[in-house]
Design a protein that fits this description.
203 residues, alpha+beta, five-stranded antiparallel sheet, four-stranded antiparallel sheet, 9 strands
C-alpha cells in the first residue's frame, strides 16, 4: 500500500538525488512534507522551493529533479501505490480519472496546527509498520491511507479538481501496462509476458 521515508535519524534515501544531473520519472504518487529547512525542486519543468511546513503531492509520470537542500533540511515522504489510490478515492466517493491527473502536482504550505497533525499521523503509522505483522494490520494501514488521502484533498482543495468518471477497468489495465513496460521493456518484448502479469489473455 505505502512506502515511508524520512531523514530524521541521519540516513537519507534521497541523498543521491540532490543536485543530480539525471531527473527521475515517478511511477507512483509521492507526498512529501518538509519539517525543517528548504530544498529546490523542479517538477515537469516548473521550479518550486519547499520550505518548512510545505507539502507537495506529485502524481505518477511526473519528472522531478531536486536541487541542493539546506543543511538543516528534514522531510517525511509517502509513496502511495496505484491500488491504494484507486481504493481510497473510490471509498470516499471521489470521481476521478488517474490518466487525466498524471504529470500533475499540487503544492501548498500547511498552517502550524494542520502540519503538526499530519506529522503526528506519519509518526503513528511509522510506529505501526515497525511492529510485528498481525491479523488486522492491513486494515489499520488502509484506515491511515484514507486519512492521508483525505488530508491531501482538504489541503489541495482549490487545486485538486478530479476529472472524468471513476477510473475504469480499462484505465487501470492501461496504467498497469505502462508501469510494467517501464520496468521490463529492455528484457521483455513478448505480449504473453505482459498478459500474464496483468491476468488477461494476450488477445
Amino acid at each position: 500500500y505505502i512506502l515511508m521515508y524520512d531523514n530524521f535519524n541521519g540516513e537519507d534515501s534521497l541523498k543521491k538525488m540532490y543536485n543530480s544531473s539525471t531527473p527521475l520519472k515517478l511511477r507512483e504518487m509521492i507526498i512529501m512534507l518538509v519539517t525543517d529547512g528548504n530544498v529546490g525542486l523542479n517538477i515537469n519543468q516548473k521550479d518550486i522551493t519547499l520550505h518548512q511546513g510545505s507539502c507537495v503531492c506529485m502524481m505518477p509520470e511526473s519528472i522531478i529533479k531536486f536541487g541542493v537542500p539546506s543543511n538543516n533540511f528534514k522531510y517525511l515522504l509517502y509513496v502511495m501505490y496505484q491500488g491504494i489510490i484507486n481504493d481510497v478515492l473510490t471509498d470516499i466517493g471521489i470521481s476521478y480519472n488517474m490518466l487525466t491527473m498524471s504529470h500533475d502536482f499540487y503544492h501548498e504550505k500547511c498552517d502550524d496546527n494542520f502540519f503538526s497533525y499530519r506529522t503526528d499521523i506519519y509518526n503513528e503509522l511509522k510506529e505501526e509498520l515497525l511492529r510485528d505483522p498481525y491479523k488486522y494490520q492491513k486494515l489499520f494501514v488502509r484506515s491511515y491511507a484514507n486519512i492521508i488521502m483525505i488530508n491531501n484533498i482538504t489541503l489541495f482543495n482549490q487545486q485538486f479538481k478530479p476529472q472524468g468518471n471513476t477510473v475504469s477497468q480499462q484505465d487501470n489495465l492501461y496504467r498497469s501496462f505502462i508501469s510494467l513496460l517501464n520496468k521490463h521493456c529492455i528484457r521483455e518484448r513478448a505480449v504473453q509476458f505482459y498478459a500474464e502479469q496483468l491476468g488477461i489473455t494476450p488477445k
